[in-house]
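Render this sequence as a predicted structure.
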Amino acid sequence: MIEERELELFYGPQHLGMVGNFSITLKVEGDKIIEAIANPGYLHRGFEKLMEYRTWMQNFPLVCRINVIEPDSIEMIYAMGVEKVAGIEIPERANYIRSIYLELARVGSHLFGLWAYANMLGFDTAAQWAMYHRDIILDLFEELTGGRVYHIYINPGGVRRDFPKGFKDKIVKTLHAIGGCIPDYDAAFFNNALFYKRAKGIGAITHKDAKELGAAGQVLRATGMKYDIRKVEPYAAYDKVDFDVPTREDGDAYSRIWIVRDEMIESVHMIFKLLDMMPEGDVWNRTPNPLKWRIPEGEAYVRVESSRGELGLYLVSNGEDKPYRVHFRTPSYTHGLPILEKLLKGANISDVGNIMISLYIIAPEIDR
């Protein structure tokens, strides 16, 4: 009789399949995972505490760093929190521009997620397509904001500048170029039997567990729950446009990645509708001098639907020129700690990256 034994295996933070400054300690028996302990403590940025030492406007470049892949939703939620406490109204055109901007960010984020996932499974061609298409989305952001990664475009009262001349046509042209390649993505990746075999039934979570553990976004919708903050509690111009919320039933990696695909298509359709409906007018409601701006005492909780799910912000002002307290509710916190640890238990070592990337984890959202 061969004596079985357990070994401790360290996965990350330097591992190519890791999601960033993150590590997982695995207890394995052969190639089966007996226990997984996630350790996000390789970042130590302390974003929330740093924000208490910076003025209201100085925090906009800082909050972007909480999610490098999609900083735009973080900009939006912080601006919404400031606007709610300060009682600032938003011009109608600015709300449309914000929605278009956020949906472009969602498409770019999903393309990055598809690149990471396809790369993890060895689908290099589809991964390279996704990274190229994300790059042409970043071209749009660069023209609009001057930055490719961090944009700092949404400000309290609206947006920093209006669309430049011809920008709407460039958005349409770019999205048509990406949308025209959907059949290629389907043939090379989504309808590929190897993707089905590697992802079907892997990292499955039940609807009950997803709700109890605080799942959001694709992780929750993959279990059959049609829940989206853009529908439940509309913000910007989302109450002006009709769109669907894609869902699946099996709660596995296969379902989560299919939802990413379907959401990208839905976002593109939404952008076209918003561009057609967008009114003329101002894009910014002037705010006080940023160096002297003191927001009245008060508190607010606001939330948006980021590309990874519900993103919340609790903001407190004590009447000074800086926030008194800032606390974010990020989807990666629950996805990357309790849910990841639960789904890795009993899984194969080869599926660690498969499961982790399908959960759409961003390390700075956890260790913030």
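Summary. Residues 61 and 152 are 6 Å apart (CA to CA). The first helix runs from residue 47 to 51.
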